[in-house]
Amino acid sequence: MKDYLMRIVVYGFLAFPVWAEDTAKVVGQSEPVVATVDDDVILPCTLRTIVRTINAVEEAVVWQRPDLKPKEVHFYRSRDDYNDDQNNNYRGRTSLFKEELKNGNISLKLTGVKLSDDGIYICFIPTLKSLNQKASVQLSVGAASKPQITVFGVDPMGVILKCEAGGLMYGPEMTWLNSDGNILPDGPTETETDSDGRYTVRGHVTIQKTDNNKFTCRVQQHQINHKMETEIHVPDQMFSEPWSYWSQSYWWAWLIGGLTGGACGIYWGLPLYGYIRYKINEWIRKKRNRDTTDDEDSPMSGVEDGNKEAVQTGS
Ligand SMILES: *[C@@H]1O[C@H](CO)[C@@H](O)[C@H](O)[C@H]1NC(C)=O
C-alpha cells in the first residue's frame, strides 16, 4: 500500500513537468506594438505549449478590444472569418494569416492604422480548455503622420528645408541627416502640444549641395523606442551658384517691374517732356513779344504792367 502511494507520488512528480510543458496556451506580447497612422501592423499572438506550437486551423480565434462596444475586432471559426458582429471601426481592415494558423500563428494583421486603434487587444481561443485561453497585445499609435519635409527657401548659404511631424504621443526629438547618415547642424526645433496632449515638432536646416542631394528628417520618441524618417531629394538647380539666389522669382519680379516701369516712363515721359518744353518756350516767346509790342489784349498783362509802373514810381 505504501509502495503504491509512493509510486503515484513519484510518477506524478515526474509527470508534472511533462503535463505542464504540454499545456496549450495563448501567448501575446508584453512589448507594445508601436505604429504610425496609415501603417499596416501585425499584432503577434501564438497558440503553443512551452515546447511546441499547436495547429489552430480547427480552433475558433477571437480578437477583441474589451474597451469598445461592440468589442469584436475579428472572429474566425470552422476555417473561415465571421465578421458580422465586428466593430464598424475595423470593417475591412483585419485578417489572419491563414497559412500560418497550422503553426499556431494567430497574429492579427491590421491595415491603415488610425489614432483610434490605440489600445489593448485580446487574442482568445474560446475552445481552449485552459486558464491561458486569452492573451493581450498593446497597440500604441505613436504618431499621427510621418515627418513632412518642404523646401522653405533659398538663400546665399544654401537651401532651407523645413520638417514637421504631428500627433506624437511622447516628447519627440528631431534630427537631420545626410545620405551618409551624418547628423547635420540644424536650427532650434519648436515643440508644441495640442489639446489631446499630443506633440507637434517643427525644425529647419540649411543645406549645401552634396553628391546626391538626399537629406533625411528623423523624428524619434525615445520613451517608446519609436523612429520615423522621411527623405527628400533636392534638385541640383536649387543650389547656389549665387545665380540660384538671383533666380528666385521675387528678384525677377523686381527686375521686370523696374524695366517695365522704366520703359513706360520713357514712352510716356519723353513726349510729355517735349510738350512741356514746347509750352514753356511758347509762353516765353509770347511774353517777349508782348513786352516789346505792349499788347493790351490780356487783363493779366495789364496788371503786370501796372505793377511794373508802381515799382518804378516807388523807387
Ligand atoms: C505570423 O505570420 C506572419 C506572416 O508570415 C509573420 O509576419 C509573423 O511574424 C508571424 N508571427 C508569429 C508570432 O509567428
UniProtKB/TrEMBL annotation:
It is found in: Membrane. GO terms for cellular component: external side of plasma membrane. Keywords: Disulfide bond, Glycoprotein, Immunoglobulin domain, Membrane, Signal, Transmembrane, Transmembrane helix. Residues 1-20 form the signal peptide. One of its GO terms (molecular function) is signaling receptor binding. It holds the Pfam family V-set. SUPFAM superfamilies: Immunoglobulin (SSF48726). Residues 17-123, 126-233 form the Ig-like domain. The chain crosses the membrane at residues 251-276. InterPro entries: BTN3A2-like_Ig-C, Ig-like_dom, Ig-like_dom_sf, Ig-like_fold, Ig_sub, Ig_V-set, IgSF_BTN/MOG. Residues 289-315 are annotated as: Disordered. Coiled coil: none annotated. One of its GO terms (biological process) is regulation of leukocyte cell-cell adhesion. This is Ig-like domain-containing protein.
